Amino acid sequence: MTRFRFLLPALLASLTLIVSPFAMAQSAEREWDAYRDALERGERQANYWQYGWTGFYATTLAVNAYQASEASDSNDRFDARVGAVKSALALGGMFFDRQPHPEARRELERLYAEDDLALARALIEQTAAVERERRSWRARVGSLIVNTAGGLVIGIGDDRPSDGAISFATGMLINELQIWTQPRQAGVALNNFQPARLSMGEMHFDYEYAFVVAPNQVGMHIRY
């Protein structure tokens, strides 16, 4: 029994030397797959988001521009002029406010070719930070200013407080939908990995894991 007790650590060490390179390669490849899949899906959603909201604001601009001159009611014409200004500002913002995922996906492919996993992790963390920033209160300041101004112009300038409040609330709701339909795949990929520790007597092994669900199978990504 004593002899076996001394042989066991040596046996475990030998198995570790044999298995670890293969396990590390498998874990790294799964991590690469998770990051690449996240940014590919993020880029796809970013394109849908960009084209969808650009088309929406272009349509509302055209409708408001038409209503501003052709509506039969003077209040409707006034509201349409305010709406046209708001839509034009929002449309202009879409051309300058780009999602980070397409560029991040291209950069990740370059890092994958160079097999630089450390920089890939940093890229995912940076993209996730941009996602969080685009959902923070700062992302709402511009819309708050524009919609407040539009509501005041209608409510006070045209002496229609209730219509001004509706204009403000509608504009803020649309902006909120625009914010929450943005892609967030990088943050999800980053948060999927949870820290854990495997202990075998005096030996401790720190690692991170993430469950991955796919059609007809459930897997686990491990990195350490």
TrEMBL record:
Secretion signal span: 1-25
Keyword annotations from UniProtKB, A to Z: Signal
Domain of life assignment: Bacteria
Annotated protein name in UniProt: Uncharacterized protein
Organism the protein comes from: Litchfieldella anticariensis (strain DSM 16096 / CECT 5854 / CIP 108499 / LMG 22089 / FP35)
Phylogenetic lineage: Bacteria, Pseudomonadati, Pseudomonadota, Gammaproteobacteria, Oceanospirillales
